[in-house]
Write a structure and sequence with these properties.
Radius of gyration: 60 Å
Oligomer: single chain
Helix content: 25-40%
Number of domains: 4
Strand content: 25-35%
């Protein structure tokens, strides 16, 4: 049997990469690519400071710009001092260009405010944070969320102004800005300057109403309802419905003032006045100051009372009293000094220093002609007084021309004071009358009258007794019989009586006799001696013709 060895195969290892490893490699590459894409598409992360976290939920509360989602809230926590809420928001890449120093955020939720009802769509979807893009160049990543929506966007067309006032709390964000009762803007921001110790109110005037703002425009608080009781009576003004509920600020150019140049510069500053009357009073800034010395009571004369000349207002009462009388000399014969301002701009359109000097010289001349001031009742209902200026030529010149470095405006007793003096004089005369003697004589007269009345009463009783006698009662019957006889006698002399007929017959016969005597009377009238000499004459011969 022969040995046969089997052949051996030679094995050599082959080095190669398994395809199974491609799977993790591909997965790693995809993951790395996705990471790069995620980092490339990831927007900035910002921090928002809120006063409250009401309605804010992590992962749900969105950040929108013009109702387009640009981010979401990723974290909410308290601040280090526990006074506010710090929220972290992740924004989209495209929102990075919106984050500027003037970018504004606010929470959109249901609100009932001065501008109406807003945010009703969030009742179902929940609150969200609105982003208003900024326009500045500098970027920012931390912002304060506004408590209320802004009045207008930063790029809105209009004019922004700043009003200053000594007191804070006069206006609030959203209050209307009114011109002749029409809303032309809103209060946009309220702040307080600690250095100047003044409150600043930022307004936004919408276009085209910004053209109403002039250099001499004045702003004042509008309370909606303004009731003023002054020497001129009661003055009630009612504004718009919105101003009744929220108040606001009004503006206009004072009457009689030039409007001035158009204001175009943003953030121009103006003063905020308390009311329109204060604006009018501040307009009369050119005036002369005088002191009026009154002998009567100044009760009812208040600061701001008018100084008028025949119904035309010339000035204003500034201070009542200017100073108290010198008490070291007592109060006897002490006059009450009142400081007044004579405001020339109330009657002249243009006033300068030269006009004021001319006015001063003119008034001094008028004082010598009898120009005097007196107190008069301006309102009988309120009892307030005013100063009336009129000419009293019989009044003497004042003894004092100055008082405490002020020129004196001569005064005279007012109408009411004159009435008081007349009443006092009448009372003095009544007191000086001999009332006791008069009363004594009056008592004597009354006693004598009483005796006379008693005598008259006794006489009346005597007459009653006389009338009660039978003889006195018979007198009327006899008197009636006598009157009847007289009437009968008078009747016999009537047209039917015999004496009347006899007289008528006699008159007829007398008339006949007069007719018969008429020829005799004519003859006697023609020839008075006819009764002595005969009137017979021969007839004149009648010539006869020859035979």
């Amino acid at each position: 049997m022969s040995d046969q060895t089997p052949p051996k195969a030679e094995v050599s290892p082959i080095r190669q990469l398994s395809l199974i490893w491609l799977v993790p490699v591909v997965a790693l590459v995809i993951g790395f690519w996705m990471l790069i894409q995620f980092l490339a598409s990831k927007g900035p992360e910002i921090t928002l400071k809120l006063t409250t976290a009401e309605g804010i939920e992590v992962g749900k509360t969105e950040i929108k710009a013009l109702n387009v989602k640009v981010g979401v809230i990723t974290d909410v926590k308290l601040s280090d001092d526990y006074n506010s809420i710090m929220a972290v928001a992740q924004l989209d890449k495209d929102a990075e260009r919106m984050l500027k120093t003037d970018t504004r955020f606010w929470v959109v939720k249901p609100r009932i405010g001065k501008q109406g009802i807003s945010g009703l769509e969030t009742l179902l979807s929940g609150a969200y944070i609105e982003l208003q893009p900024g326009v500045q160049e500098e970027e920012q990543r931390a912002f304060n969320v506004l408590d209320t929506p802004p009045v207008a966007p930063l790029d809105a067309k209009g004019l922004r102004l700043i009003l200053s006032h000594q007191e804070a709390g006069k206006l609030s964000v959203g209050d209307p800005v009114l011109y002749e009762g029409f809303t032309v803007g809103r209060v946009e921001k309220v702040s307080f300057d600690t250095q100047s110790k003044k409150a600043n109110y930022q307004l936004f005037i919408f276009e085209p109403y910004d053209s109403l703002i002039r250099k001499r425009t004045r702003f004042w608080l509008s309370s909606g309802v303004e009731l003023k009781m002054s020497a001129e009576g009661f003055n009630l003004k009612i504004g718009s419905v919105e101003s009744l509920l929220t108040g606001g600020v009004s503006f206009n150019v004072p009457e009689g003032s030039e409007p001035g140049e158009l204001v175009t510069r943003q953030m121009s500053r103006f003063r905020l006045y308390n009311n329109q009357n204060e604006v009018r009073e501040r307009f009369y800034d050119q005036y002369l100051e005088y002191v009026m010395l009154f002998d009567e009571s100044v009760r009812g004369l208040n600061e701001g009372a008018p100084v008028e000349y025949r119904g035309i207002r010339l000035g204003t009462v500034s201070k009542v009293p200017l100073r108290l009388p010198n008490q070291s000399k007592g109060f006897s014969n002490q006059q009450i000094p009142v400081l007044v301002r004579i405001e020339l701009s109330r009657v002249l359109e243009y006033v300068d220093t030269r006009n004021l000097q001319e006015l001063h010289d003119n008034l001094s001349l008028q004082f010598s002609k009898g120009l005097r001031a007196s107190l008069k009742t301006a309102n009988f209902l309120t009892g307030q007084l005013m100063v009336d200026v009129e000419f009293y030529t019989e009044e003497p010149l004042p003894s004092a021309l100055t008082y405490k470095d002020y020129d004196v405006f001569p005064t005279t007793a007012g109408g009411f004071a004159e009435i008081q003096k007349q009443v006092a004089s009448l009372l003095d005369k009544l007191n000086n009358l001999p009332l006791e003697t008069t009363l004594s004589e009056l008592n004597q007269t009354l006693a004598a009258a009483e005796k006379t009345l008693k005598s008259a009463e006794q006489a009346a009783r005597s007459v009653d007794a006389l009338m009660a006698q039978q003889e006195t009662k018979a007198i009327p019957a006899e008197l009636r019989n006598s009157l009847t006889q007289i009437q009968a006698t008078l009747s016999s002399y009537g047209a039917e009586g015999a004496p009347y007929r006899n007289l008528e017959n006699a008159l007829v016969r007398f008339e006949q006799v007069m007719k018969e005597l008429q020829p005799v009377l004519r003859q006697v009238n023609d020839k008075p001696n006819s009764l002595i000499f005969s009137d017979s004459k021969g007839k004149d011969p009648i010539p006869v013709a020859g035979e």
